[in-house]
TrEMBL record:
The keyword Hydrolase applies. Residues 14-245 form the AB hydrolase-1 domain. GO terms for molecular function: hydrolase activity. It comes from Photobacterium piscicola. This is Alpha/beta fold hydrolase.
Length: 254
């Protein structure tokens, strides 16, 4: 799997991994700051952005894609920041190549299997768009709005709608993500804990990291530290980018 990626800056390498329905651009506010001091690699995960589509979509597959990309670039040691699903990919990396990771930063995600379906309305909206010939982006938003009330979520998704000769299409693999949704929400802990430097950053208003997950976090990442960003939700790095940048930079300096 040859992932699409963007490389910026010079220095030690840091890898940025986006979440579900995203692309390399989603952590752009972090990359913009980090590239002044680091060699920043922002990736499109498989089935997202400009990377290839594939029906296989386990966290081990996604992590191996990152490893293959870094091997291709001859990068041995690196730091990694992941958000949401991308944070699970980052955590999966620690099970495969723990000796190559200096710092692990987990943005608003726990190493647990989440219950229920959190994205049914999003998938319904994406499929609704696919049922129609789209000639204008505004048409796609109207179809999304039938299922997704949050205008911010609709605009986020529309970043991955691209024009082709016959209209518009999604960059991400809609049906592939639907087929693998149980895997995306699930989690299989590594057989050995990762003892490297680890930081979990939680959005105060988000429910992805809850007190009941503390034991699972500490069992898998015994040296983990935590930081809560006040008055932010799951998209904490976009809502308070300066604060999150400062927290990450202070951690990377340790």
């Amino acid at each position: 799997m040859n992932l699409h990626f963007r490389a910026e800056g010079k220095g030690k390498t840091i890898v940025l991994i986006h979440g579900l329905f995203g692309s390399a651009d989603n952590l752009g506010l972090l990359a913009r700051e980090l590239k002044h001091h680091y060699h920043v690699i922002s990736v499109d995960l498989r089935n997202h952005g400009l990377s290839p589509h594939n029906d296989l979509f386990s966290y081990q597959d996604l992590a191996q894609d990152i490893i293959d990309t870094l091997d291709h670039l001859a990068i041995e040691q690196f730091d990694v920041v992941g958000h949401s699903m991308g944070a699970k990919v980052a955590m999966a990396l620690t099970a495969l190549i723990p000796q190559r990771i200096h710092h692990l930063v987990v943005l608003d995600m726990a190493p647990v299997a989440y219950q229920g379906h959190r994205h049914q309305n999003v998938f319904d909206g994406l499929r609704e768009v696919n049922r129609h010939l789209i000639t204008k982006r505004s048409e796609a938003e109207q179809y999304l709005a039938r299922f997704i009330n949050d205008a911010g979520v609709r605009q986020f998704l529309l970043k991955s709608l691209v024009k082709i000769e016959t209209g518009y299409q999604w960059r991400f693999n809609v049906e592939g993500l639907i087929a693998n949704y149980a895997t995306i929400m699930g989690w299989h802990p590594a057989s050995q804990p990762f003892t490297g430097k680890t930081l979990f950053i939680k959005g105060q208003l988000s429910d992805y990291i809850e007190p009941q997950y503390r034991d699972a976090i500490m069992a898998q990442f015994p040296n983990a530290k935590a930081h809560v960003v006040a008055n932010t939700g799951h998209w904490l790095h976009a809502e308070k980018s300066e604060t999150v940048n400062r927290i990450i930079n202070q951690f990377l300096d340790q």
